[in-house]
Structure formats: structure tokens, C-alpha cells
């Protein structure tokens, strides 16, 4: 396994377990960017912002966890693709309304672009947030 792929996997694990930017920044370029075409996170444009958003989400969905379905590495393009299902139940404080007790099982993909220094430079999250928010009773 390439060192870059390992870094991408380590980043994925840290981000998805709610480590926030403090737990993710060692895997990332300082100016790492973020993009998504999902309304809930469309305004986030830095990886720092996204990592901190995930950390906050796991406070609202305290049983939140991911089920990794696949992780692939494209050596020519220096891109890792992680496909997973996020599971979580709204039982924690916060969110758009009091705890609903409802759960989601939401598919998503991370496209993680690495730079020449072997750090995460940019990430895109491909996620149908409308489906997840409806399952949680938020939409």
C-alpha cells in the first residue's frame, strides 16, 4: 500500500470518528479545501471546517459510526475514494430541533486528493443529505 493511500485512510478514520481538525490536521495540508453539493454542508469550503462539522454532528448523533464498504487508490491521479454508510440516531443535544430518536443509514463517498507532500489537499463529499435529513426527521 502506498504511503499516500495510508495517509488518506488514516484521515478518513480520524474524520469519521469525530476527531475534529485537531485530530485530522496532521494528515492534511494547512490550506486543504472542501466541497460538496449537499445543502447541509454546501457552505463549508475548508477541510478544517468540515472536520469540525463532523465532530459536532457526532455530538448530536452520539452513536454515529461508519461502515466502510470500500476504499480505492488511483496512483496516477493521487486520489483515494472511500465509500461508506453512516449510521446514527438523533439522541443528543443540538441539531435543528430537540432529539427525534430517529436514525439514518446514509451512503456517501469521499474523494480525497493528495498533494506532492503526501498530505490531503482537497476533499469532495458525495452525499444525498436530503435523504439522511428526512430519515432523522429534520426535513
Can you walk through the features of this model?
The chain has 139 residues and is α+β, with helices and mostly antiparallel strands. 29% of the residues lie in helices and 36% in strands. The chain is built from four helices and five strands; from the N terminus they run ααβαββββα. Strands 1-5-4-3-2 form a five-stranded mixed beta sheet. Strand 4 (103-114) and strand 5 form a beta hairpin.
Could you give a short description of this structure?
With 139 residues, this protein is α+β, with helices and mostly antiparallel strands. Helix content is 29%, strand content 36%.
User: What is the molecular shape?
Assistant: elongated
- H/E topology pattern: HHEHEEEEH
Number of helices: 4
Strand order of the largest sheet: 1-5-4-3-2
Alpha-carbon Rg, integer = 15 Å
Helix and strand arrangement:
Elements: H1 3-16, H2 20-24, E1 28-36, H3 47-60, E2 65-74, E3 79-89, E4 103-114, E5 120-127, H4 129-135
Parallel strand pairs: 1-5
Antiparallel strand pairs: 2-3, 3-4, 4-5
